[in-house]
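Teaching assistant here, posting this on the class forum so everyone can see the example we discussed in section. The complex has two components, and the goal was to see what a joint structure prediction looks like when all of them are supplied at once.
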Amino acid sequence: MRFTLNGKSRTVNAHPMKRLLDVLRGECGLTGTKEGCGEGECGACTVLLDGVAVDSCLVPLAHVAGKKVITIEGAAATRTGKALQNAFVEQGGAQCGICTPGMILAAAPLTSHASFDEIRTALAGNLCRCTGYPAIFRSVQSALKASKRAR
Amino acid sequence: MRRKDGDAKVTGAAKYIDDLTFPGMLYGATVRSSIPRGTITARHISLPDGYTVADHRDIPGPNYVALIDPDQPCLAVDEIRHVAEPLLLVAHADKDALLHLDTRISIETRNGTPTYDPEASDVCFKKIAIDKGDLDAGFKAADVIVDGEYRTAHQEQLYIETNGVIAVPGDGRMTVYGSMQCPYYVHRALVVLLALPPDKVRVVQTETGGGFGGKEEYPSILACHAAILARKAGRPVKMIYDRVEDLLATTKRHPSIVRHRTGLTRDGRLTAMDIDVIMDGGAYATLSAVVLSRGVIHAAGPYRCDHIRIRGRAMMTHTPPNGAFRGFGAPQTLFAIEAHIDRIAEQLQIDPVRLREQNALRPGDTTATGQQLGRDASALAVLRDAVKRSRFHQKRKAWAGTNRGIGLSLFLHGSGFTGGGEVKLASKASLELTPRGARILVASTEIGQGTRTMHAQIVADALGLPYDAIDVHEADTAFVPDSGPTVASRTCMIVGKLLERCARDMRRRLGTLTPAQYYKKHGAFTVTSQYEPPPGLQWSDETYAGDAYGSYAWGCNVVELEVDPVTFDVTPLNVTAVAEIGKAIHPMMAIGQIEGGTAQGIGYALTEEVVMKDGRMANAQLTNYIIPTPLDAAPMDVGLLERPYAHGPFGAKGVGEMPIDGPAPAVINALRHCGFDIRSIPATPERLMRARLHHGFSKAGT
């Protein structure tokens, strides 16, 4: 199975129905993608699939053939990734950190003009138990502002 | 100050337990009971080669998980007390080979009759009595007596990283890596179970994806399981629970029943408080005795009253053991008193703020245990600030008779271990000189709350060095002293203070030299500090009287919400949380604790329902155990007040637990403002609908 992982072409020999989450963590050795529930509820395993945030625990490997996958390890190369990573540290969006990779990738497709409601909606499939969310919203808002300034 | 663990967490570089592998590693699984009570009569195991199977006969030491009472077996011998009772352990090199073990292993049992009602149980783990003044005299002085019964249910901690460990055997030693709050609890459990000398057991905390109490005592039994398998197989064994197993088997918040009988004068002064507290401990004692202790000590709330009687019992039932969860007994009893105070206000037709103002503890007043409060008793300050910030009275008036409501709660939370606990712990902290500054050596764990950052700030300030010159060693029992568990809002106030003392000692020893100069001339040195109680602190375990805590943090919550008249869905509109915590060492992280704890408290009040069916959690999935999502998060207004505590580092008191004490009663009081008389949580739409159907818009009933 061939797909693009964080900008590089990658071939993986694994069962086509294997969860993308397990392929990323196992065959690809990228453990930044986390498992929180295994049923698509918590969003800790969020990755970008052709630019769209998906739960990698619900995506079979076969589904990514020929597509582009971005994990937290490749997030810095995305349009907003670096700003989000920095803001999650500076604004307190990351506490225990287990939801953080998923949160950052769920927020990554947002444009710098995103409204507060658009931010909340983008993150609606991602659970955090530490922050109660206000610090995550502040992190995303601050990152979008910073990425706007950078352009 | 940039958090020490921040960059690793946002790039995916931080290593959590499931991110680690060891050469030759096996995967372990637990075979559990499927009945709530009974006796094992036969075990049939038909597994092909390649599997390692262990049972209680493979335990070299005594078969219990060392904590307080030696009652919980690591692996059942023949008695089953709950549906998740661990019976056997199985390991295999292929994780998938551990699926469907139930087709190859069958356990025959003789069923017993389970008890789920703590009041019907005949096994009591702990009883506590607190008496102050003369209760009869207090009731004689009363014009009015108000009774009430309040109930709270289980709550799941729901850290997003499930419990997990890896045990690595070798050369008469055992090393366990894992997600945990208390490495030395795990260390002691392993030393006892494996019958090894302490220096042959090493416990290393890996980056931990949330705890909230759920990784206080539970990792000990899991570490024991992995170690038994690893010892038998002679290979490393990884055990990571999936979400379903984590929900079914691990500890939850104790359900409670609290009954109040309160005497007051007509104008609202408390004359007598009679309080009965029952906690449902589940199948084994675990931490129930100390959860009950914190619960009963907080049961009279932040109020002054000369005549108080509190009786508490922690009872056994046939559900998986309940355990530590942020707040540790206090959220249950503070829910009861704060819901009760609003009912009293309603009955006496007194404004709920005025009733609280009149009775709030002030500096110099004594608590239920007879502790005289110092100048940092801030009940009135947090109450007035929260009322003002939220414009409580304007909204209360404007929304009367609508489906919008506003309610408040006032609370306190003792920092550190209860009573003589800190003296018994005798915690230690060390500081080691490095060429560029100093390295912190403590067993306190970073579980998201910011331990490493906050400790480094305290040390940097006390040493007079930049924050970046301070390193923090990982919590590894081979290198760090026992600083006690990372629980009870003690990591800043108690361990932080020890580090402040270490830093001041180190600064004296350095004299006029910089760390680099001293290091070059004399080499490294380490200073260690051990806990000593502040002068004058007294406590009696026999009479349950005295100074229950070194100090208290104080809080007030105001919750504004709207009830959908058709679906009975409750939408929190705004939450005000004011906290007086002595000194916020890192204000952003302190606010993070308050916002996060408040959100957990709103979940506790409204949506988080553990459905128990025949002793088993019936909704053990994230699909139907509902914690707040980003769309549920209400805007929060957090106010920090600081009244320094003389014996905390730079004046700091505890902050971690208190935020979860107040939201549930504030929600229930806001619902009361909307005409719902609710006395148990969670207040799910189904419960609200029943309350409305049975009682209409009247204020009577349950």
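For the discussion questions: Chain A has a mean pLDDT of 97. The beta strands of chain A are 2-5, 8-11, 46-49, 52-55, 68-70. Think about how each of these relates to the inputs above.
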